[in-house]
Amino acid sequence: MAQVIVAGTQWGDEGKGKIIDLLAEFADVIVRFQGGSNAGHTLVVGGEKFIFHLIPSGILRKAKRCVISSGVVVDPDVLIEEIDSLKERGYLQDDSQLLLSEEAHVIFPYHKMIDMGRERIRSGGKIGTTGRGIGPAYEDKAARCGIRVIDLLQGDVFHRKLEENLANKNYYLTHVLQEEGFELEPLFQEYMGYKEKLQRYVTNTSLFLSQQIKEGNNILFEGAQGTLLDVDHGTFPFVTSSSTVAGNACAGSGIGPTQIDFVLGVTKAYTTRVGSGPFPTELSDEIGEMLRERGGEYGATTGRPRRCGWFDAVVVRHAVRLNGLSGVAITKLDTLTGLNTIKVCTAYQVGEDLINEFPASSEMAVRCEPIYEELQGWKEEISGAREISQLPRAAQRYLERIEELIQTPIHIISVGAQRHETIIRHNPLLT
Ligand code: GDP
Ligand code: IMO
Ligand code: MG
Predict the structure, then answer these.
(1) Per-residue pLDDT tens digits for 347-374
(2) 41 carries an active-site annotation
(3) Listed residues 147, 180, 200: the one ending a domain
(4) Protein residue with its CA nearest to atom 27 in ligand 2
């Protein structure tokens, strides 16, 4: 039995979806514990592409149970679209495969409108959110006025809470953001329609997970976003609104920390970021362009071009500590093929100072000049490699140097988007 958390170690889009899909073969249950439809997790299976925003990336594996737990903020419209599309493609034929927490908070159109309206008027520069209403929904949760899945199931309770929320949101939308407000009855009816479609999945997911653990089953916790987008430890305020680090897998899914056996970080062989905020190793030259094109670095949720740059060991060391990583999966090594030399950032220079830790202040982070070490590149295509020994010597050396710099073992190496394009040195679910 092994309970494994998988977390992003950079600014998201590290390839968590691919790694979860791969490991899901060895798990019984796969759980999303935070974030919402701001996430976009891509799986390529049998040449077919799937992008999941809310449904855990284990759903393509028959008989695996997939849980959307209490810490997730759920947009029912997006969830239903994902369910319908999966069913059409021949998956999720058995409703018991998907479980939705009764405690999860629900996203409403006013959350999205506030999210986008706030971005428009922000004086300190846009965060570049996904516009999915994530921040405003978590705000309502913290302010204790949010509406939860359990409320939707009780029509009269939901009606009262929606009415109370709308009074407040409509005032804010019309008076502060100069937007249109929402009418109670049509919104109520729309969400009662969602309730009809979703109620079959709703349950006490904390109880379900604790039973699964008692039965000796393997659980994979699927993080969304990445450590540098964490609301406490990321590049605040250019972060998302949830705790993205491994510690939150327990709080977000309602199990205790004593249950966890292994924390796997997912780390891209270089660095990308969507949205605004500091990014010390960003490349705005032809190498950055080459990484974007070769790596297909366009947002899975918004389609925005991702900013690209060299591997940053300061960032990943930060993630090793904050997540307590047992090991990492390095992804997209194949994207680096063809470069004569590859740089890795080992520390930062700020004025006269040498810095080894990521600064808390984003104002300071934008002044960090990366200190680079140069490694030799390779020309051979590597997507066919299934053993480390099949990689060119320079690629092996690159991985060895990353391991030294982050002081953490590399257990998995992804050399292509497809499920099978992977080198597995150690499978955390088989320990
Ligand atoms: P996630 O949000 O962490 O799940 O990552 P995304 O799905 O947003 O972005 C990762 C992208 O890289 C997707 O298009 C994946 O299909 C793709 N991908 C994942 N691993 C590899 C890899 O090793 N090589 C290549 N070329 N693409 C990969
Ligand atoms: P996955 O799970 C990359 C970024 C947004 C923006 C900031 C805040 O696919 O790795 P939000 O809509 O959450 O309020 O936006 O966070 N962001 C992501 N970037 N991958 C993600 O998810 C992201 N989810 C949010 O671009 O900069
Ligand atoms: Mg993504």
Answers:
(1) 999 999 999 999 999 999 999 999 999 9
(2) yes
(3) 200
(4) 275
